[in-house]
Amino acid sequence: MQFDWMKIPYAFLTLFIVVNYGLLVTALIAKIAARVGRRHGIPIYQNYFDLIKNYGLRSSITHGVMFYLGPVFRLSGGVGLLLFVPSIYGSYMFSNLSFSGDLILALYFFFFGTLGMALGAAESGHPHAAIGITRGLSQVTAAELPFGLAVFSVALQYQTLSITDIVAAQQGSILAWTLFTNPFAVTAAMLSFLGSMMRPPFDVVLAPQEIPIGPPTEYHSSYLALMQTNRVIFPIAKIVIYMNLFFGGAADWPTFFLKVFLIYMWSVFVGVVFPRFRVEQSIRWFLVWAVPVGVLSIILL
Q1: At a CB cut-off of 8 Å and minimum separation 6, what does 84 contact?
Q2: Are 200 and 139 in contact (CB under 8 A)?
Q3: What whole-number distance in Å separates Cα of residue 259 and Cα of residue 230?
Q4: Average pLDDT by consecutive 10-residue portion of the chain (301 residues)?
Q5: Peptide linkage before 201 cis (omega within 30 of 0)
Q6: DSSP letters along the chain, please?
Q7: For labelling alongside 6, which of 33, 124, 126, 233 has CA 20 to 30 A away?
Q8: Residues contacting residue 253 through CB under 8 Å, at least 6 positions apart
Q9: With contact defined as beta carbons under 8 Å apart, do 158 and 103 qualify?
Q10: CA neighbor of 252 nearest in space, from 90, 88, 93
Q11: The pTM is what?
Q12: Other CB atoms closer than 10 Å to residue 28's CB: what's the count?
C-alpha cells in the first residue's frame, strides 16, 4: 500500500482544530463543574493563557532523560491516536492517516502515553512516584479491559478492523448505530470510558485533596505545557474512537463537535454527582460491573 503524502497537511489541520476545540471545551466543562459547586470557575480563554505562558518558560533542573521524555511520550499517544483515526466520515481531507487495520493501532496508542508517563515518573526520584505509577497502571488496565472486550465484539459484529468500514456500516439510520445493534458492547465501553477519562469518581491517580504532588507539580515550564496540550488532545481523540465505533461517526464538523461534547458530558455528569473511589474500589468496580457486560456482549453476538 502506497502512503498518501498529501494527507499530512490535512492531518495537521485536524490537529489544529482539535487542539482549539479541546482548549475551549475543557474550559467550558471546568466552568460547568464550578457552577454545580456554586463557584464562578475559570474564564473560557484561561487555557490559552496558561499554555502560552508555560511554553515560554525554560527549566535548568535535571532529573534524567527519561523524566523529560515522559511528557513527550504522553503527547505522542494523544497525537498518534488522533492522526491515525478518521475524524470526518467520507472526507478525504479529514480521514487523516488511517488505514485498513487502524483499530488495532488505535488500541496501542490508548496505552502508549500512560506507559511513557510511568517511565518518566519512575526517574523523578520522588518517594511517592511509585504510588502514582501503581495507581495509574492498575486503574488503566482495569478500565481498558472492558473496552477491549467491547472493541472485540464490534470487530466480530462488522467483520472488519477498519474504523472507516465500521462507520460506513452504521450509516442510513440512527437505528443502525452500534448503540442499538450491540447495546451490551456500548454499555461496557461507556463504563470503561469513565475510568479512561480519569474524572471523579475515578481520579485516583492524581488523588485531589489527598496527595499534593504528581505530574502537574513535578513537571514545569514547557514540559508542563506538553502535558497540558495532551490533556486537551487525548480526551478528544478517545471520544472520536467512541463516536466512530458506537455512535455512527460524523459526516461534518458541526456533527463532530456536538457528538464529542455530548459524549464528554457523560463523564462530566458522573464526575459532579459521585465522590471519588479509593483505588481498590475503582478496580473492583470495573471487574464486577464493566467486564461481565463486555463478556456478555461477545457471548450474545
Answers
A1: 96, 97, 98, 99, 102, 105, 106, 109
A2: no
A3: 20
A4: 74 93 93 87 91 86 79 88 90 79 82 78 73 79 91 94 92 94 95 88 70 62 86 92 95 95 93 83 91 94 82
A5: yes
A6: ----TTHHHHHHHHHHHHHHHHHHHHHHHHHHHHHHTT-----TTHHHHHHHHHHT--------HHHHHHHHHHHHHHHHHHHTS-SSTT-STTSTT--TTHHHHHHHHHHHHHHHHHHHHHTS--TTHHHHHHHHHHHHHHHHHHHHHHHHHHHHHHT---HHHHHHTT-S-GGGSHHHHSHHHHHHHHHHHHHHTT-TTS-TTT-TTT-S-SHHHH--HHHHHHHHHHHHHHHHHHHHHHHHHHS---SSHHHHHHHHHHHHHHHHHHHHHSPPPPHHHHHHHIIIIIHHHHHHHHHH-
A7: 233
A8: 17, 88
A9: no
A10: 88
A11: 0.91
A12: 16
Grid cell, residue 171, equals: 450509516
Q: Distance between CA 13 and CA 259 in Å, rounded?
A: 20
